[in-house]
Task: structure prediction
Amino acid sequence: MIWDELTTLDFEGIDRKIPVLFVMSATEQHGPHLPLATDRLIGEHFAYSLQKKIPNDIIVLPTMSIGCSDHHMDFMGSLTLSHETFISHVEDIVRSVIHHGFTNIILLNSHGGNQAVGQVLVEKLGNTYPGVQIVMATWWKLGGSELGMLNEGGAMSTGHAGEFETSLMLLIAPHLVRTDKYEKGKHSKTHPWAEGDMLHPPKIALYRSIMEMTSNGVFGDPTHASKTKGLEITELVLENLQRIVLDLIKDTK
Result:
């Protein structure tokens, strides 16, 4: 089900234990070859694909399309919210959903810069609403170790606008991918303990803007991307996301 395609009367017959999914994304640069909407399109791709698989077991909210992207603002076109505004926005939406009696909320994250603030939201909302199950899932973590099997570019190829995001965009919106503009990330080295990508997160957090990390806005290697890989990533993510949905329904408080 799609939340804003329902009528107010439709809600009368909906079981309130059905999980409500809220995509948290971003509008920001993704190098010279991907559009600003990349994170939103990827998040919605997973949400709507899941809804097609289990239409009666999930409700998808309108997407939050701007996230915490201060670290991308050196690149033209990027938009950002402050952490405080982001938290308030998500809290208000979730509070509205809970007001209508729903007890399972999934925050589906598709932007690296939303991870820390998303964890804060899980803790705040979980404490405020003890009768509600609050979950945050970031899509590349949902893929698990099996996602690593798809990695052809090796270490540091799966970061921002790299192998995985580009593969998904070739599946989702190939007309928006500038394949003639592919560039490997122009990475700037830092301390070994602060290096990492989607599959191998850094051991220690060190703040660096994207411009400090890579001068062309790409962290990774899009040259290993393919539509086939995008489909394989999708299947892995959906399998694990569906499991979460069904577990929440079974384990409703």
Observations:
- The chain has one domain: 3-8+17-250.
- The mean pLDDT is 95.
- The domain at 3-8+17-250 is CATH 3.40.50.10310 (Rossmann fold).
